[in-house]
Structure formats: C-alpha cells, structure tokens
Amino acid sequence: MEDSHVDLPIIKKDKKTLLNEDLYPFKYAIHNDAKMIMIGHIAVPSITGDNTPASMSKVIINDLLIDEFQYKGLIVTDALNMIEDRDYSTDEIYQNVINAGVDILLYPTDSIEAFNSVKKSVKEDD
Fold first, then answer.
1. Which of 12, 89, 102, 119 is the residue whose CA sits 20 to 30 A from 96?
2. Extended beta strands in the chain, E state
C-alpha cells in the first residue's frame, strides 16, 4: 500500500467490506463516545465515487461520519503538509477540508495562510 506521507493511497475495497472491516474501529469508537477522530489522506472511490482524499471529502466527513455514523465530536485532518505539494493548491486544500466538515486543520505549512484561506471561504459562504 502507498504511504499517505508520499502518495495518495487508493483503497479499492467495496463499501460493504469497508463498513464491516476497515471502518469498524471508527464505528466502535463513535459508539463509545470518541471525542476526536482524525481523517487520513486516502481515497475511497467505492464510497465517494472518485479519488478525492477522505480529508477533503464531504461524502466521507459529512455524509458518512457525521450523518450515517452520527458522530458528534471533533474532526481533525492528518498533517496537511503531507499533501500540500500534490494535486491541489494550498487554498483549495484549506477550503475543501473546512467545507467537508473538518474542525481542526493539523499542521498546515503556513498557519497564517491557512487562517486567511478559511476566513475567505467562510465569507464567500455568507
């Protein structure tokens, strides 16, 4: 499997397998009142329909984690500096993770740029 520090791992399992196996620890943690969950930089096309990283996916964060799994705690990205030199501009990354439902942006390369990007995104949504 690819290392998410270097590349975008693409998980090719079907949704049923993912829900029953790979996502079971998350469902268990939520059932036991987890206060925070970290979203990794992996793609799960059987759930999202594309190769959007889970950390930027509204389908994964909002639809699956929050709506389907009924998660109510904090959601944090994995370290953002891991994906900042890939297929998205830093602005796109910061805005996409916030718009997907993330609460905490972990380790952006430039925290001031991240703050300004999120602020801009919030103002555009008004």
1. 12
2. 36-39, 74-77
